[in-house]
Amino acid sequence: xxxxxxxxxxxxxxxxxxxxxxxxxxxxxxxxxxxxxxxxxxxxxxxxxxxxxxxxxxxxxxxxxxxxxxxxxxxxxxxxxxxxxxxxxxxxxxxxxxxxxxxxxxxxxxxxxxxxxxxxxxxxxxxxxxxxxxxxxxxxxxxxx
Length: 145
Fold this sequence. Notes:
This is DUF4174 domain-containing protein. By secondary structure, this protein is of the alpha+beta class. It has helices at residues 27-32, 51-61, 64-69, 84-91, 124-132, 135-144; strands at 7-10, 14-17, 39-45, 72-78, 103-108, 114-118.
């Protein structure tokens, strides 16, 4: 039986388990619940001790204010937690993520679409530049001023 614990790291609420014990929630529905409210950094790793997962967490750790300003949540999913449906969702129908991959970072916009896929850890500054050029983020920045 698959372990269905998908972890969401909310910048407002710390670490939160999205699924109740024994209740499987698909990755797609977890991300869909954030639509139009939050951007998602979906971080996939083969296991919790994966070096790239640790590196990605380090890259983001000192940038909580920037992540919060851009309405980011971090969603960490591990290989053993994924159902076939989740794998299909991650691959997006275009086979960008082979089932043999050991790490992948997905930048998901507020519209629910995957904006970028990164096969290696990415600096927060790269993520911020990417998001800050998007029309929705440009509008958010204009409204703040």
